[in-house]
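The authors assume throughout that readers already know how a fold can be written as discrete tokens. A single example would do more here than another paragraph of explanation. An entry of this sort, consisting of the sequence and the corresponding backbone structure tokens, reads as follows:
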Amino acid sequence: MPVHLLVSQLRFTRSEFIRSLAGVTEEEATSRFLPMNCISWIVGHLANQERRYWVMLAQGVEIHPELNDLVGYGSPASTPSLAEMESVWREITQAADRFLETLTPGLLQTNFTHQGKIIPENIGARLMRNIYHYWYHTGEAAAIRQLLGHKDLPEFVGDMSSAIYYPER
């Protein structure tokens, strides 16, 4: 069965995020232009959101809990290794995909529970939040790269052949 349209959109969004990082060195990825965080932090931060939503809440699996203190919302600024954050991001997105591939329109309208409490946003809203979060930080990473003096950055959304529209299934 093909994945839900929103899942294909998330996968496309992830690919655009990764495309936006092409050519960034380890040193550049840990450079900060206050008040922004660095690029390596952004990679870990997005991995942390997917970890919380699609691995911990959805599957009850705990991997890389250290991310929350390192790159979680509201945590102190940090400059983690880009190579490490990219590796963790790949591991987490692969684990997340195991759940995301099971999504149906009906399941998207349900809510996660955590510690016996229903989480107010349904799974579909969480998925859209995750997609929009990626786009926010993709733009931020582009701004950081401009400040670093990078030229010939991606100027627009890339090849969407992997994310074409089809009616909801």
Remarks:
- The mean pLDDT is 93.
- Residues 54 and 99 are 6 Å apart (CA to CA).
- The first strand starts at residue 111 and ends at 114.
